[in-house]
Structure formats: structure tokens, C-alpha cells
Design brief:
Blueprint lengths: L2 H16 L8 H15 L23 E6 L3 E3 L2 E10 L3 E6 L3 E3 L2 E9 L3 E9 L2 E12 L5 E6 L3 E3 L5 E7 L3 E6 L3 E3 L3 E4 L7 E9 L2 E12 L2 E3 L15 E9 L7 E6 L4 E3 L5 E11 L11 E5 L1
Length: 303
């Protein structure tokens, strides 16, 4: 509705409410109405027009944004952590706290050999202001050492070798002893020298005044049967016609399923069989093909 229409409506309402006749002087009323019209319509009476003003305020400069994180919130003493950050609307970044110096507005950095808990701060600034972020990385000095030591076999034949494998966590150094020796890595593999007797491998790892020990035993089996030649007959007379020996073996005591005959000069024989437990005995044979009773029985565990 135009200002003129509004004034006419207000004027008629005033006349009605206050009983003013057509001869009343409406100057006071007109002043009120014009003021009201100016306030309500944003312009003066008389049908004139107003030119809209142009907003010349420059646009606001965007503020910098910054994300900042660590690859882990907790590490063991001597451990490392990777810091990553990314910013927008920033021209430069500055590190402080557990690190220092100027940094690119986006990047990564690995912090090594942490010995104590640290707070890492990063501030990035630009024309629109600055953004600050912090990350806390805790260093656990009292982390418990864990250690595992294993071998590829539990037993080997004489002159056989064994491969050791070990892993540890929270350890700073490890030392070997027993059938191996010296400083070794905190995780790794090792192949032993040929073993001629049962072996014991021990590994001790250290960190921050703590230690952990692991031991591993390996049985060494001699699959060779050895004996001494008899010199007497069962009646006590001298044995003069020894002609050979027989070796018997099987998987049950005194119940032999296999045998081999050897000459009179034989003093040992190597058992070449599949892995398992075997019972063995030896007999002597004279020139009349008479055979003695079984010797004492031995047991061989073939790995």
C-alpha cells in the first residue's frame, strides 16, 4: 500500500476515534502520520523514489584451519611416533613443545628415541588469523618385556642343526647363552652349529632395568648302535670262532620285526629308518652258525 493510501486510512481512523470533523486542522495528525509512514515504509510521502545504497564492505578473509595427529598416543621408552598435519588458508606453521622450528603447511615427521612423555604443538597462521593444535604422546618406561623363543624341531640326529626363531617386545637388547652366545637382535633367526649332544639354548632380553628369559632344549639322537665283541662262550671257554653279528630292531620291546647280518669285524651299525621309537639288540654268531642270546636292549628315538 502506498504512503498516500496509508495516510488516508490513518486519517479516517483518527477522525472516527476522536470525533474530529472535516473542519479540524489535521496538521498535528499529519505530522504523526508522516513520521509513521516514513518509519514503516522506509521513505517520505509525495510518491518520490529513493536510490538503494551499494554495500562496499570487503569480503571477510577466511580463518586458517588445522588438523594435527600422532600415529600413536603411547610408545615404549626409545620408541618413535609419526606426526601428521594439514592446514588451509595458512601461509606458515611453527612447531613448539616436544619439537621446534618452522614447518610446511602440510606434512609428516617421525620423532624417534622418545625417552619421556611429550606434548607437541603446532601453530599455523595466515591473513585470516592463526590456528593452534596439540597432541600428547606418553612414554611408558615400565612396559613389561615379552619374549618368545622357538625352534623348527625338538630333536635332531647327531651332527644335525636346528633353526631358532625369537621375537620380543619392549626390549632394548638381547643376549644368547648356552649352546649359542653373544649379543643378538631383539627379534631374528639363528641356525646352530652341528650338535653332538643334547643342547640348551637360552635368550635373555633387557630394557630399563628389567629382563626376560626364555629357554629351549633340543634332544640329539645318535642313531648308531655300538657294541664290543664277545671273547668267551657261555661256558667260560675262550671264543675262537666268531663269525659275525646280527642287529635286531622293532617298535616294541623284545619283539623285533627287522634284522641285519654283519661281519665279524663290525662294531657299530647306523639305523636308517623313518622317524619313530625303536628297540634294538645285538647277537653274536659263530662259525657253526650258532647264535647267542640277545644283548641288553637299547632304545633309539629317531626324529
Amino acid at each position: 500500500m502506498s504512503a498516500r493510501c496509508i495516510r488516508r486510512v490513518f486519517t479516517q481512523r483518527w477522525f472516527s476515534e476522536f470525533g474530529c470533523t472535516k473542519s479540524c486542522n489535521p496538521r498535528f495528525l499529519l505530522t504523526i502520520l508522516v513520521a509513521g509512514i516514513l518509519t514503516a515504509c522506509g521513505g517520505g510521502g509525495g510518491g518520490g523514489s529513493r536510490t538503494a545504497q551499494t554495500d562496499t564492505t570487503p569480503p571477510a578473509t577466511p580463518s586458517p584451519t588445522l588438523t594435527f595427529s600422532a600415529s600413536s598416543s603411547s610408545v615404549t621408552s626409545g620408541g618413535s611416533v609419526t606426526l601428521s598435519w594439514q592446514s588451509t588458508n595458512a601461509d606458515s606453521c611453527t612447531a613448539s613443545g616436544g619439537w621446534s622450528g618452522n614447518r610446511a603447511t602440510t606434512g609428516q615427521q617421525t620423532i624417534s628415541s622418545l625417552q619421556q612423555s611429550q606434548t607437541f604443538s603446532l601453530s599455523c597462521s595466515g591473513a585470516g588469523g592463526a590456528a593452534l593444535r596439540e597432541v600428547q604422546v606418553n612414554v611408558a618406561d615400565d612396559a613389561e618385556i615379552s619374549l618368545s623363543l622357538s625352534s623348527d624341531v625338538d630333536a635332531v640326529l647327531i651332527n644335525g642343526t636346528v633353526q631358532l626363531t625369537w621375537t620380543s617386545s619392549n626390549a632394548q637388547s638381547c643376549e644368547a647363552s648356552g649352546n649359542w652366545s653373544g649379543q643378538v637382535e631383539t627379534s631374528g633367526t639363528f641356525t646352530s652349529a652341528p650338535l653332538t649332544d643334547n643342547a640348551l639354548f637360552q635368550l635373555t632380553c633387557f630394557a630399563q632395568g628389567q629382563s626376560a628369559v626364555s629357554q629351549l632344549g633340543v634332544a640329539v639322537t645318535d642313531n648308531t648302535v655300538r657294541w664290543a665283541a664277545p671273547t668267551e662262550n657261555v661256558d667260560g671257554t675262550q671264543l675262537t670262532d666268531l663269525d659275525g653279528f646280527a642287529v635286531y630292531w622293532g617298535d616294541r620291546s623284545r619283539n623285533y620285526s627287522s634284522s641285519v647280518n654283519l661281519g665279524a669285524g663290525a662294531r657299530e651299525w647306523t639305523l636308517d629308518v623313518a622317524p619313530g621309537t625303536y628297540y634294538l639288540a645285538v647277537t653274536a654268531i659263530n662259525s657253526q652258525n650258532e647264535e647267542s642270546g640277545y644283548s641288553n636292549e637299547i632304545v633309539k628315538v629317531i626324529p
